[in-house]
Specification:
three-stranded mixed β-sheet; elongated; Root phototropism protein 2; SKP1/BTB/POZ_sf
């Protein structure tokens, strides 16, 4: 009976790839159940056509985990090198042989399929069992050395020709490899799937990019507007979310090396992180591992992931007490785009002891330092862009506008944390001083934050109050804030005097500018220019000439700020001048009307006098005329 079996077992080579059997009439193995152990039933057709084989008693018992298999030696020995070696160590005198296979990849299910292959039973290779079959055939040594087209070659061929051509099947096989590690990694099953996923994702991205191209009116190719921000080629991001973090890390690294867009990688990371951190049934160490791994996988490009996601990742890292390197990396990334942050993003909860502040001030302070360093590095580019254009839009470089936005964020942040009773003065001052002096054009927000701090910490000393108020440039307060500061009893007396002094200077400057505009012949205009030179040029003149280029850069920033301040003041004065001019015009028009009426009255009086004089001549004039007539008559005589 066993002499015919090798010829029948060799016939399965002619079947399709995913079928590893002779046919439905192949020889069926005589499995028998022992006590309550697992029973592996043969196919019905095989059992019916090979009933004679079932009468042959089993001569080997194989134990795999909790399952027991009663089989025959010859079908197993003809294909399994490991079983052949184990049986060679057993004496021939033993009629019934028992073998235990410890650590078989895939367990009893994998051995079930391998035994069916040895007996020629039909079964289908799928993406769900190919990894188990490949690793189990390697463990059982079912190679070409013992039989042609053995199980390991069939499973490997299925991996290369079927699985690696589909991204979904590669992901499924990769997920099935999780319990098979590290053997699946040593056999390059994981590497094949990872490379297949990366190449397919890259190809999908290229195909989607070509599909979004369109011709313009001039005949040039360009990306369509409605598809520029779309992610139609990133459907694979959701499929990858089922992978374990270590395998997911390898897939993302392979995608980066294949040139997948940073935006696509960032979207996939956001989707995976949100799904993993929301899982409830997981070991305590896994969320920390997820956060640290995702942090290391973030693209280097700015704005590849949303800033709110970076802040959320940082808050999770603080809560889970992740590695310091991961937290510092997140702080550096956030600092590079801090100008787009909101107050809710910046409020990072503190998870320290009871005496700590409500929010993590130290973390936000380090973020501000990273932003300041990045801003200093970009000053060269800002200076070049400033001199390239003389338009008003170029007066404030992108870095300068970012500074303005961050200064508003810092002032709002200080106002929010100022009421915390555990907030120390040195931390408050450190956050306020983290930005350069030219970042704030108006100090109203900083004054409001300091006022809240003074109100919440009434026990601080006068020296600490003076130290705190030195942060405010009272010359940069608005009129409303200056009026409030002049009446604020919580401020030191020296600060109140400064407020009153600058208010007086502001009033004087406004009067001088008004006078110079109303009376252009006066010498008030040079005085205004002189005061402007003093306020803007004193700082640059007092600076050390160690680095001329840096000093010119700082002076340029000061000049820009002073110009902006003067423009605002000029607008206010122009409004006042227009109002005064209107009032003067009204006064002039009323006086002109009075003079016109008075002149008309005088004119009418003169006309009346002339009419009266012509109508009734005086006697002196009539007598003189008579005397002249008499003289003429006498002369004629």
């Amino acid at each position: 009976m066993f002499d015919k079996m090798p010829k029948q077992l060799s016939q399965h080579q002619q079947l399709p790839l995913h079928y590893l059997s002779l046919s439905t009439t192949s020889i069926s193995p005589p499995w028998k159940s022992i006590s309550n152990h697992r029973r592996l039933p043969p196919t019905a057709a095989a059992a019916a056509s090979n009933a004679a084989v079932n009468d042959v008693p089993s001569d080997i018992t194989i134990h795999v985990d909790d399952a027991t298999f009663s089989l025959h030696k010859f079908p197993l020995v003809s294909r399994c090198g490991r079983i052949r070696k184990l049986l060679a160590e057993v004496p021939d005198s033993e009629r019934q042989t028992s073998i235990e296979l410890r650590g078989l990849p895939g367990g009893a299910d994998s051995f079930d399929l391998a035994a069916q292959f040895c007996y020629g039973v039909n079964f289908e290779i799928t993406a769900a069992n190919v990894a188990d079959l490949y690793c189990a055939s390697h463990y059982l040594e079912m190679t070409e050395d013992y039989s042609n087209s053995n199980l390991i070659s069939r499973a490997g061929e299925y991996l290369d020709t079927v699985v690696c051509r589909s991204l979904e099947m590669s992901v499924e096989v990769l997920r099935c490899c999780e319990p098979l590690l590290p053997l699946a990694d040593d056999l390059r099953v994981v590497a094949r799937c990872v490379d297949a996923i990366a190449s397919k994702a890259s190809a999908e991205q290229i195909a989607s990019s070509f599909s979004r191209l369109e011709y313009s009116s001039s005949g040039r190719l360009h990306m369509s507007k409605h598809a520029r921000g779309g992610g139609s080629g990133d459907w694979w991001a959701e499929d990858l979310s089922v992978l374990r973090i270590d395998l997911y890390e390898r897939v993302i690294a392979a995608m980066k090396s294949r040139g997948v867009r940073p935006e696509s990688v960032g979207a996939a990371l956001v989707s995976y992180t949100q799904r993993e951190l929301l899982k409830k049934t997981r070991p305590d160490h896994e969320p920390r591992l997820v956060v640290e791994t995702i942090t290391g996988l973030l693209p280097l490009e700015r704005f590849a992931v949303p800033l709110s996601f970076l802040f959320g990742l940082l808050k999770s890292a603080v809560a889970l007490d992740c590695a310091l390197s991961s937290r510092l990396d997140l702080e550096r990334r956030i600092g590079s785009q801090l100008d787009a942050a909101t107050l809710d993003d910046a409020l990072i909860p503190s998870f320290g002891n009871e005496g700590d502040t409500l929010f993590d001030v130290d973390t936000f302070h380090r973020i501000l330092i990273n932003f300041s360093q990045q801003d200093c590095d970009s000053e060269d580019d800002d200076l070049e862009s400033l001199f390239e254009s003389g338009s008003p839009a170029a007066a404030a470089s992108p870095s300068q506008s970012a500074l303005f936005r961050v200064s508003k964020l810092v002032d709002s942040y200080l106002t929010e944390i100022a009421s915390d009773a555990n907030l120390k003065l040195n931390k408050f001052v450190a956050v306020a001083e983290s930005l350069p002096a030219h970042a704030r054009t108006v100090h109203d927000g900083l004054y409001r934050a300091i006022d809240v701090y003074l109100k919440a910490h009434q026990g601080i000393t006068d020296q600490e109050r003076r130290k705190l108020c030195k942060l405010i440039d009272f010359q940069k307060l608005s009129q409303e804030a200056g009026s409030h500061a002049a009446q604020n009893e919580r401020l030191p007396l020296q600060s109140v005097v400064q407020v009153l002094y600058y208010e007086q200077l502001r009033l004087r400057t406004a009067l001088l500018c008004t006078g110079s505009s109303a009376f252009p012949d006066d010498d008030a205009k040079p005085a205004v220019h002189q005061s402007w030179r003093i306020s803007s040029g004193a700082l640059s003149a007092a600076m050390s000439p160690r680095d001329n280029y840096a000093s010119l850069r700082r002076e340029n920033r000061e000049l820009k700020l002073e110009l902006a301040r003067l423009r605002m003041r000029l607008n206010d004065l122009e409004k006042e001048h227009v109002c005064m001019k209107r009032n003067m015009d009204k006064d002039k028009s009323s006086s002109r009307k009075f003079m016109i009426c008075f002149a008309r009255v005088i004119g009418k009086m003169r006309v009346l006098v002339r009419c009266y004089s012509t109508a009734s001549p005086s006697p002196s004039s009539s007598t003189s005329k008579q005397l002249q007539g008499e003289k003429i008559k006498q002369h004629n005589l």
